[in-house]
Specification:
Strand content: under 5%
Number of helices: 13
Shape: globular
CATH topology of one domain: MetI-like fold
CATH superfamily of one domain: MetI-like
Structural class: mainly alpha
Radius of gyration: 25 Å
Length: 316
């Protein structure tokens, strides 16, 4: 406890951090809420001396905008697909790593590498893996033929000289979504593995010793001991996974570029965050602010639902 006579010193030390927090976090949030209720607000118009009235017009435009439903659908679909898959895979990998003693630290480092790698760079690698170029797309030059490493692997296992257009023109929407699901799951694994592995190593080994004495099957140990005792960590990675899923943007840009979709269907995979960036690029700051608040509301509701479920399922 800081002595009351010396509290000013504590405030002095905290002042730089508080000032930065107020300028770059608190004020932008307040300003976003303000702009969301200024009907038709545009920075260019405001610079020209235009005035704006308070109202709900921006929210009405966002909700009734035909592309908004597409972005909301894509965002929800990516969350529903990637969060359960990545959490389940991370749990299995964490359990496997926890049971491996030799090279455990080395394997942890390898699995953690994607987390510290630039998302755009990873997206470009995935785009190259799924890309189809050269005469496969109609170019007569045979030297340019390439169907990507993923199609090459499929051809080896299926024995058919056929390729799937994953991200190119005329590619189906399910193929685009499959590529993004694989990428997002792979990119989300490192953080989840690290959190779950830390939780596993904190579990009292007496539970496993007792199960071993009783000759309990491994699957029952996993479902009755590991998962319940790891439930606080699982709840954490699920909640943060949904929050991150609702903010997906850079992963799609990394694979498809700023068009957010294949060349013949730009915007097909646009998300809520992409919608906000598009609105900002069009100098429609009021619309972008309204969309940001709607996204915040959705994330808040989903987080509260997760917390409510966690109260019944999590064992502390």
């Amino acid at each position: 406890m800081v002595d009351s006579k010396h509290q000013w010193k504590a405030w002095l030390y905290l002042a730089p951090a508080l000032v930065l927090l107020l300028v770059f976090t608190v004020w932008p949030i307040i300003n976003t809420v303000r702009l969301a209720f200024l009907e038709g607000y545009s920075g260019m118009k405001a610079a020209g001396g235009a005035t704006f009235t308070f109202g709900l017009e921006n929210f009405e435009k966002v909700i009734t905008y035909k592309k908004f439903t597409l972005t909301l659908k894509n965002t929800l679909l990516l969350c529903v697909l990637t969060v359960p898959i990545s959490t389940f895979l991370a749990l299995l990998i964490a359990v496997a790593l926890n049971s491996i003693k030799p090279l455990q630290k080395t394997l942890q480092t390898i699995f953690f590498l994607p987390y510290v790698t630039n998302s755009i760079a990873i997206g470009m690698v995935f785009a190259a893996m799924f890309n189809v170029v050269g005469s496969a797309l109609g170019t007569p030059n045979e030297n340019l033929t390439s169907v990507g490493i993923v199609n090459n692997i499929l051809q080896i296992f299926t024995g058919k000289d056929h390729y799937v257009s994953w991200i190119n023109s005329n590619s189906p929407e399910w193929a685009n979504m499959f590529v993004m699901t694989v990428y997002i799951v792979w990119n989300a694994l490192p953080f989840k593995i690290l959190v779950l592995l830390g939780g596993l190593q904190a579990i009292n080994k007496q539970y496993y010793d007792a199960a071993k004495i009783d000759s309990t099957p491994r699957w029952r140990v996993f479902t009755r001991i590991t998962v319940p005792l790891l439930s606080p960590m699982l709840a954490y990675v699920i909640i943060t996974g949904f929050i991150g899923g609702f903010k997906e943007y850079t992963s799609i840009v990394g694979v498809f570029g700023d068009k957010m979709g294949p060349p013949d269907a730009p915007g097909r995979l646009n998300t809520m965050v992409g919608f906000i960036y598009d609105s900002l690029a069009q100098n429609r700051e009021g619309l972008a602010s309204a969309a940001a608040i709607i996204l915040f509301g959705i994330i808040l509701v989903v987080t509260f639902i997760n917390l409510w479920v966690s109260k019944k399922r999590v064992h502390y």
